[in-house]
């Protein structure tokens, strides 16, 4: 039986894996390969938290392959050279992979496809990550979409309820002598003298295909009911927490949609389901934008902001934001949730991003960079869009003058202060009435929370006004 290489990247699953299916369909024995080449994704090589996740996700994939009689061949180095070596070692006749959409990955993959095809190899790429690939939907005038609602109206019609294929129970064994590295050789996890900053992550997460499936099952049985309203409350289990699993392709959006549409929902839950699907739509829209406007990972999408007067970051204030020591509890709780779990609730992401880009008036890149390193779901398309949306510089963004009030957000979405108390234990004994803006009750803070900053690093009202003035300034008016 002739061989085909299956080049795994961010499609770390066996079910609904079109690259694997295509090789099997053609009658090839698939050889599963992972090549570690972070430099090829520069300047967006994976951050520390996603690397820690990747370590476990690769282990899970290898275990799933072994349970079927196969195994993951791990290599490190230039992807093209490693693939060429593997082709020579296995006499593989074909190479399959599932597509990525970031600018650096597209450039590399195009080069590899051209190079290997010209030498007579069958090289095929497939769609495993998106419901609608960026070039398959366009506006009436043939342009890419820049506004979410019409994008989703179009893309939504393409969703299908049919369950995608599952993987066979047995896979052929790769050649016994085919050598590879151990996953631990890739040194993806934090190692001494670095502290194990990820130690707390794994009580919240189970990387890998089985963990993704469990997350989806739990969501469909539970939080899906009431999602539209409850998803705004950060102290509740009210969203799917599928984002890192989707990022690494441990589950596909097709699988999620098929499960959602394949179920009969009570009429009262239909609005929740539609809203959940539209959030998957935002993921699609982010990829659509990044594909068509690849410069936006670094630059404002809205060019009118090119003259905007961002403030020069004060390193102490930036560090206070990163560490959850700004003195504004809802901001600090979010940044600590991120630090302890590698994830942050969406509403709080918007609040901390607004605080950084509007109250501190720092360029959104400072925030996007920190998220890139600390989120387990750090994803170039979603992160770029999330930051540009909140900063007001994006395509379909919140206008710059809409500035989140962290006090009002805490009062409305964490009214009992459960989220703040969970992540800021030093405020645990403060009464509810003091939790959104403790600096307004300095005596209480001195007595009950002496370790917490006595006032915010920036005056919320004055900084809001300064942001609005900068926004409407003569040179910078967007
Ligand atoms: P659910 O509410 O259960 O939504 C289901 C899925 O839809 C998510 O898993 C995600 O894949 C997608 N989704 C939901 N909301 C959005 C959104 N606003 N934009 C794009 N896709 C969305 N998401 C990431 O996956 N990676 C990031 O790096 C990232 N950075 C962000 C940065 C900022 C400043 C902001 C405001 C948002 C960011 N998001 C990012 C989007 C969103 O916060 C997360 O996708 C969501 O919180 C993940 O939780 P969940 O899986 O429980 O979401």
TrEMBL record:
Annotated site location: Electron transfer via tryptophanyl radical: 310, 364, 387
Family: Belongs to the DNA photolyase class-1 family. Belongs to the DNA photolyase family.
The protein's name in its UniProt record: Deoxyribodipyrimidine photo-lyase
Secretion signal, residue range per the UniProt entry: none
Sites where the protein binds FAD: 227, 239-243, 276, 377-379
Class of enzymatic activity (EC top level): lyase
Cofactor info, note text: Binds 1 FAD per subunit.
Catalytic activity, EC: 4.1.99.3
Role, per record: Involved in repair of UV radiation-induced DNA damage. Catalyzes the light-dependent monomerization (300-600 nm) of cyclobutyl pyrimidine dimers (in cis-syn configuration), which are formed between adjacent bases on the same DNA strand upon exposure to ultraviolet radiation.
Catalytic activity: cyclobutadipyrimidine (in DNA) = 2 pyrimidine residues (in DNA)
GO biological process, one term: response to light stimulus
PROSITE patterns given in the database record: DNA_PHOTOLYASES_1_1 (PS00394), DNA_PHOTOLYASES_1_2 (PS00691), PHR_CRY_ALPHA_BETA (PS51645)
Keyword annotations from UniProtKB, A to Z: Chromophore, FAD, Flavoprotein, Lyase
